[in-house]
């Protein structure tokens, strides 16, 4: 079996750069008024779509630390089917999903229009950057086969 190549270890300067971008995006999102809980919901949802186990493990834990409930995290893949999320959260989730999935133009325009109704320009931009950056982190972790470590009892 071929040993997995960790991209972050192979090119640590690039990893440092993308990590720095992630910190700047988080800072911009918080300055735009997006709370830590919403940021983590977005990170979790994007990682669910991309199937990134490593990022899911990390961001589900961080979402809990930010006060996110187990119930909302459990139903996050079906957020459209519940009333557990605010309009602002729904708009942010729709925009992040659109950026992640890159659906056809009509679907993207619908998601963007809904987001523009519920989010300020600064929030819209910050959510977009969160999605772009989280997608990049997902791809690094998936390509590197970053392992999920078992929790210690």
TrEMBL record:
Residue ranges occupied by any Carboxymuconolactone decarboxylase-like domain in the UniProt entry: 30-97
Q: Name one Pfam family in it.
A: CMD
Q: Where does the source fall among the domains of life? A: Bacteria
**Which positions make up the signal peptide?**
none
Check the record and name the PANTHER family matching this protein. CARBOXYMUCONOLACTONE DECARBOXYLASE-LIKE DOMAIN-CONTAINING PROTEIN, SI:CH211-175M2.5
What is this protein's record name?
AhpD family alkylhydroperoxidase
Q: Which organism is it from?
A: Pseudarthrobacter enclensis
